[in-house]
Design a protein that fits this description.
The structure is a single chain. This protein is an alpha+beta fold and 234 residues long. 15% of the residues lie in helices and 34% in strands. It is built from 4 helices and 15 strands. Strands 2, 3, 4, 5, 6, 7, 9, 10, 11, 12, 13, 14 and 15 form a 13-stranded mixed beta sheet that branches. Strands 1-8 form a two-stranded parallel ribbon. Strand 4 and strand 5 form a beta hairpin. The longest helix is centred in the N-terminal third of the chain and has 14 residues. The termini are far apart. The N terminus is likely disordered. Bound molecules: zinc ion.
């Protein structure tokens, strides 16, 4: 009886096209191939470890122009995997003349990308899309230190709306960065994502980290093999 009930509900789920949801625990990164083959078989997966002394110079077509100095109203939400902010009318980044529009940003703790093997306590991902649906993500690592005003505005307003200017969360220097081709770090692990990780590392306070970690304290995917990829530095 029980078995057939379980079978029935599994069949119902499949029929409805609904899969049990991925997470960072029972259905964590080792199982993500069950949600999307790309997570398991892809050769351009994120995150990665960056060896700062094993980089090549940046191709001209990958030069990044940051045009994010724009205020917008935004929703702050707990999406079940992270704290996410959705600006209504955010800025752009321009890569090789192509415009990518700001879609949303969210955080991981600890950092997903590592630098010379080191995880940082928090990483910001700023997701952009061009008109053809191609994705580009800016990554910002945060270290412990001085209090971060802009992060407070996010953490104080989960479930509410805020006004946000993306520049307030990016490092002051946006002209030093690493670039590579990677993927979304969550299922469906979609590839051909342009990744940029800034070299400058802003700070957050321990109290702010504690507050974020009350929501999520291990929402990170382990680093993935580079295979044939080279990390460019600028
Ligand atoms: Zn992310």
């Amino acid at each position: 009886m029980f078995k057939s009930l379980i079978f029935l509900s599994a069949a119902t789920l499949l029929f409805a096209g609904v899969h049990p949801h991925w997470d960072y625990d029972m259905h964590g990164p080792k199982h993500w191939g069950e949600f999307s083959q790309t997570c398991e078989k892809g050769k351009l997966q994120s995150p990665i470890n960056i060896e700062s002394n094993v980089t090549v110079s940046l191709a001209d077509s990958h030069i990044l122009v940051v045009d994010e100095n724009r205020s917008s109203s935004a929703k702050v939400l707990d999406n079940g995997h992270s704290i996410e902010v959705d600006p209504k009318d955010g800025g752009d980044i321009i890569i090789g003349g192509k415009h990518f529009h700001l879609v949303q940003f969210h955080f991981h703790s600890v950092s997903e990308n590592t630098l010379d093997g080191r995880h940082y306590p928090l990483e910001l991902h700023v997701v952009h899309k061009d008109k053809d649906g191609h994705l580009a993500v800016l990554g910002v690592l945060f270290d412990l230190g001085a209090h971060n005003e802009a992060l407070d505005r996010v953490l104080n307003n989960v479930g509410k709306a805020i006004d946000v200017n993306m520049m307030s969360l990016l490092p002051r220097d946006t002209q030093g960065y690493y670039h590579w081709f990677g993927s979304l770090t969550t299922p469906p692990c979609t590839e051909d994502v342009e990744w940029y990780l800034f070299k400058q590392i802003p700070t957050i306070s321990q109290a702010q980290l504690d507050r974020f970690q009350k929501y999520y304290n291990h929402n990170y995917r382990p680093v993935q093999p580079l295979y044939n990829r080279k990390v460019e530095a600028h």
